[in-house]
TrEMBL record:
A Pfam family: polyprenyl_synt
Protein name per its UniProtKB record: Polyprenyl synthetase family protein
InterPro entries found in the cross-reference section: Isoprenoid_synthase_dom_sf (IPR008949), Polyprenyl_synt (IPR000092), Polyprenyl_synt_CS (IPR033749)
Cofactor(s) the record lists: Mg(2+)
Keyword annotations from UniProtKB, A to Z: Magnesium, Metal-binding, Transferase
Superkingdom per UniProt: Bacteria
BP-aspect Gene Ontology terms: isoprenoid biosynthetic process
């Protein structure tokens, strides 16, 4: 991973603007899931560290824009750039990271570049869908999963597919692995938003629902509630939750086992990905570690 960190540092230095360097150093690198995936799949390629650095810049840019859209003050437990330096600066930093990533991407084989570039269009579309869907309570599971794929899973899918192309591996099975890894990863994140505490999350618990996001546990719950309780759940959508409201939602989720049902879907997607990569113990291990983050 040090080779990836070195490439990221080089790319940021090449931008040649101290303000960008300062702001980028404020960002937490996170799990570097996409970079680790690329290094494992394309370990024999000398181009893999640069491709991983490009994808991490794209991911960082998307998070900067996401924090502005969500008006989030924290990212991974640290103050967000929009909180410390304003939304305009956060958007422009994101634009610079996107632009630098694409500048480097054009040096790759056209199929590799196409896969990564297409995923950026898809994740931007997913972000827009997420904003639109927050306007009202969404109880459509398929619609939610479509948005989740575009916003979160598509870049992980592209990282796996592009790195497979880089070293001549089966790109279709690797893309399936990346897609399902991304979806199950986000479903587990959605569950943790409800079950984990603020200290663990680095942001307020149950913040998704306050922001208007109806994740799977809420969608499943809506379908199982009586009419009176449905009205109460919908009335709390995109509103600040007091302790009584939060406890009531958690009590109903526990009663109807909607957390468990959401986890079952994450496990099903994870198992499909493991079957696609059953001969690669390292990729299987990534999935097993991810699924253990559960509630």
């Amino acid at each position: 991973m040090q080779r990836v960190e070195d490439e990221i540092a080089r790319l940021i230095k090449e931008i040649d603007y101290d303000e960008v360097t300062r702001l980028f150093e404020m960002l937490s690198g996170g799990k570097r899931l996409r970079a680790k995936l690329i290094l494992k799949i394309a370990s024999s390629s000398p181009e893999a560290p640069l491709l991983a650095a490009i994808v991490e810049l794209i991911h960082a840019a998307s998070l900067l824009h996401d924090d502005v859209i969500d008006e989030a003050n924290l990212r991974r437990g640290m103050p967000s750039v929009n909180a410390t330096d304003g939304s305009k600066t956060a958007v422009m930093l994101g634009d610079i990271l996107y632009s630098k990533a694409f500048t480097e991407l054009v040096s790759f084989d056209k199929d590799v570049a196409r896969v990564i570039a297409s995923s950026v269009t898809a994740l931007s579309k997913g972000e827009m869908m997420d904003v639109k869907m927050a306007d009202e309570f969404n109880y459509n599971e398929d619609k939610y999963l479509d948005m989740l794929y575009l916003k979160t899973a598509t870049l992980i899918e592209a990282a796996a597919e592009a790195s497979a192309i880089l070293v001549g591996k089966d790109s279709t099975s690797h893309a399936l692995y990346g897609r399902n890894l991304g979806l199950s990863f986000q479903i587990i994140d959605d569950i943790l938003d409800i079950t984990a505490d603020e200290e663990t999350l680095g942001k307020p618990a149950m913040n998704d629902y306050v922001e208007g996001k109806c994740t799977l546990p809420y969608i499943y719950l809506y379908k199982l509630l009586n009419e009176e309780d449905k009205k109460r759940l919908v009335s709390l959508h995109a509103q600040p939750l007091n302790e009584e409201d939060s406890s009531w939602i958690k009590m109903k989720m526990n009663e109807h086992k909607t957390i468990e049902k959401s986890f079952e879907l994450a496990a099903k997607l994870s198992n499909e990905a493991m079957n696609a990569m059953k001969d690669d113990s390292e990729l299987v291990s990534i999935l097993q570690t991810m699924i253990k983050r559960s509630y």
